[in-house]
Amino acid sequence: MKAHGSCLCKAVEFSFEVKDKHFDACHCSVCRGWGGGPSFTVEVAGELELKGEENVSLYESSDWAERGFCKKCGTNLFYRLKDKSHNYCNFNLGTLQGHEEFEFRTQIFTDSKPDNYSFANQTKEMTEQEVLESFGAG
Question: So what's the architecture of 2-134 in CATH?
Answer without folding.
Answer: Beta Complex (2.170)
